Amino acid sequence: MAEQMTRDDGRTRIRCAEEADAAVIASIHMASRSATMPYLPPQKRDHEQVTRWVRDVLLKQCRTWVAVGDAEITGYAALDGDMLEDLYLRPDVRRQGIGTLLLDEVRRHSPDGVSLHVFQQNTEARAFYERHGFTVLDTNNGDRNMENLPDMTLRWTPDRII
């Protein structure tokens, strides 16, 4: 498995998300999708609607963590069983190791491995997950996502020491 990057500068910590974080998580979700996936259809939901989804669906159905740096939430990850539903960062903090910290937390809580769906067009995300040991399980024409865009399932399985 690829060498894991760690942050030991004390600037970012990972904690469980709380209901009070919903509006910030919604902002990160919307900003990240807009900045990193320009091929997506225009957002139909406003911030209030996305906040309600975070509070009433995401935080209730998923184990969700936030990355906190300088007292501000900079990203989040949501895990439903062994499926990574979301991992999003504020666009201005990308490529600083925060995504790796969140992914490491998800993997700590996934002793048998974790899967995720990623748009085939999302080459940066695909490269990120590949660097962290994920492999392609399948590809799909887009009929399983609401954007109707081709996607793929990736899976990470921990190395077993025998």
TrEMBL record:
<dbReference type="InterPro" id="IPR016181">
    <property type="entry name" value="Acyl_CoA_acyltransferase"/>
</dbReference>
<keyword id="KW-0012">Acyltransferase</keyword>
<dbReference type="InterPro" id="IPR050832">
    <property type="entry name" value="Bact_Acetyltransf"/>
</dbReference>
<keyword id="KW-0808">Transferase</keyword>
<dbReference type="GO" id="GO:0016746">
    <property type="term" value="F:acyltransferase activity"/>
</dbReference>
<feature type="domain" description="N-acetyltransferase">
    <location>
        <begin position="12"/>
        <end position="161"/>
    </location>
</feature>
<dbReference type="Pfam" id="PF13508">
    <property type="entry name" value="Acetyltransf_7"/>
</dbReference>
<protein>
    <submittedName>
        <fullName>GNAT family N-acetyltransferase</fullName>
        <ecNumber>2.3.1.-</ecNumber>
    </submittedName>
</protein>
<dbReference type="InterPro" id="IPR000182">
    <property type="entry name" value="GNAT_dom"/>
</dbReference>
